[in-house]
Every structure is written in C-alpha cells, then in structure tokens.
Specification:
Layout lengths: L1 E4 L6 H5 L7 E2 L6 E6 L2 E9 L2 E6 L5 H8 L6 H8 L3 H10 L9 H9 L6 H15 L2 E4 L2 E4 L4 H4 L4 H6 L5 H11 L11 H9 L6 H11 L10 H11 L7 H12 L3 H13 L12
Antiparallel strand pairs: 1-5, 2-3, 3-4, 4-5, 6-7
Length: 286
C-alpha cells in the first residue's frame, strides 16, 4: 500500500471520468477506482482532497510506477495560473479543478485512441474490455479477476476479421495495421514533437486528432491540443467570434493561447464543455 499526497486538489471522479482513460472503473460513486496499470492491478482510494491511497496485487516498484502514472512532477499550480488567460478560463479551471492528466501505457493508450474514431466513451470502454478479456493475462486482486491489457506480441497474430467480430468496424483494419507494423519511432525518445506527430499521421488510420491524443495521453506530451467536436464548439464560440474555422486553425489557436500547458487546457475545456452542453449550439455557424 502506498499513500500519495498532492499539495493541490486531486479529484478521482474528474480524473477518471473525463474521457482520457478507459479501463478504470468505480462501483462506489467514485470513492475508489480499480484498473490495470502495465503489469499489475491497482486500486485508488480517495482519502481526502489531497491524498490517494494506492494498493496493488504487485508491490514491486509501486511508488515509481504510481508517481509516473499520476504525473507528480507536473507543477499543477503553475499550470492553472498559466491557463487562466481570462475570466472564462478562470471559470473553466475552477470547474475542472482537481482533474489531472495521467501518464498512460504507450501501447494500450494508442490502441484506445485508434478505436476512438467516430465512437463514444461507453463503446471505447467496451472495446478495450473485450480486447483485455480475450487476449490479456488474468490477474487476481481482492478475490476478483481482472485482465491486464494484451501486449503487442499477444495481438500480433489476430486478424482483421477477428477484430471486426469484436465490433470494431472499419477500425479493425487500422488496428491490425498498427499492431503488425508498430514503427520503431514509437519506442524511441521524442526528440522533436512535431516530427513525431507527423510520423504518427503517416500511420494508416491516424489523423491529426488521434495523433494529438496519442501524443498527449500515451506519450505525455502536454503541449498538444487535440480538437474534437466539443473543442471546436468551445473555441469557435468564445475565441473566434462564433465564426467557423478549420480544426487545424483551432489547434494552432489553442497552442498559441496555452503554450506548454495546452494539453491540460484542452482537457479542462473538454470536461467543462461536455458537462455544459446547453452553452453550445448543436450546429456551428458557417
């Protein structure tokens, strides 16, 4: 068991229900979350607004793995100050306060965002759960059975048809291609953020948004600003006089406004916008 203290607020519900991660579940209204993290199962209990209690079926290197997962080296207070660029962002930050970005496993997280295309959070969760249950290793924790996420070698011989049978649709082709080829640059240090991003987009089935999500959530590059429908609506409404612009321009605008903390700003905005749908039109103005 390991106790993790944050000088800032940490909110487990906001962190695990904001759409960044898909295989941690709670059955007690967010007091605890349980899920697989690399080679083990971990249970996260919110002791108080600043403290998490972490338990696991495997205690070796637990402190190191947990600190990496929760990005404890990020200066959360400086981040919040930096992205409060106006009264609106102060409201967004206050609403999303306690939401933390997580440093996820490269392979698992990349798979989840390849499967996220034209999908939704419940479906992505189901897809990831099916993959783990069918091809991952079983792990027992607190007398319950869980499944680690399968490695590339566990999935290398799975066919596109088998992925389609799991309900992945057209994404099955992209998933099969990603697992089969798995370019070497994915396991090398990121020396140039934009070159890495372009290399991701050279992989069949990975466009700008998915590349940004993979780079942000799987590789921890928090300077990226993924643009989905919620981000598009928010940025156009509040930062472009409600005039429609391309997602590329919105990405550039977000990066310009929020700099090195753009990834945090994006997730705070996403959480705020998704929980305030009444503020945004169903259709964007031309």
């Amino acid at each position: 068991m390991y106790e993790l203290y944050f000088s800032e607020i940490f909110n487990t519900v906001k962190t695990f229900e904001c759409g960044q991660i898909f295989r941690f579940e709670s059955d007690d209204s967010g007091k605890t979350y349980i899920g697989a993290l690399i080679d083990r199962i971990i249970k996260i209990t919110q002791k108080d607004p600043h403290t998490l209690i972490i338990s696991s079926n495997k205690n070796s290197n637990l402190e190191k793995i947990v600190n990496s997962f929760f990005r404890t080296n990020d200066n959360y207070i400086d981040m919040q100050k930096s992205i409060k660029i106006d009264s609106l962002m102060k409201k967004v930050v206050n609403y999303s306060n306690g939401l933390h970005l997580l440093n996820q496993d490269n392979f698992e997280c990349s798979i989840s965002y390849i499967l996220s295309q034209c999908s939704n959070i419940p479906r992505i969760k189901r897809n990831m759960k099916d993959l783990a249950k069918l091809y991952g290793k079983s792990a027992i924790f607190e007398e319950q059975e869980f499944f680690l996420f399968p490695s590339r070698s566990d999935l290398i011989d799975i066919t596109e048809e088998e992925f389609r049978d799991l309900g992945f649709g057209y994404r099955a082709k992209y998933l099969r291609n990603f697992i089969k080829n798995n370019p070497s640059f994915l396991i090398e240090p990121i020396l140039d953020s934009e070159i890495f991003n372009k290399n991701l987009q050279n992989i069949e089935g990975i466009g700008q948004k998915v590349a940004d999500c993979i780079q942000l959530f799987a590789y921890g590059d928090i300077s990226h600003f993924p643009v989905d429908t919620w981000m598009e609506k928010f940025m156009i409404k509040y930062y472009n006089d409600e005039k429609k612009i391309s997602k590329k321009k919105i990405r550039e605008l977000g990066t310009s406004l929020f700099g090195k903390w753009a990834g945090y700003a994006q997730e705070f905005i996403y959480y705020y916008a998704r929980n305030h749908p009444q503020f945004f039109p169903s259709k964007l103005k031309k």
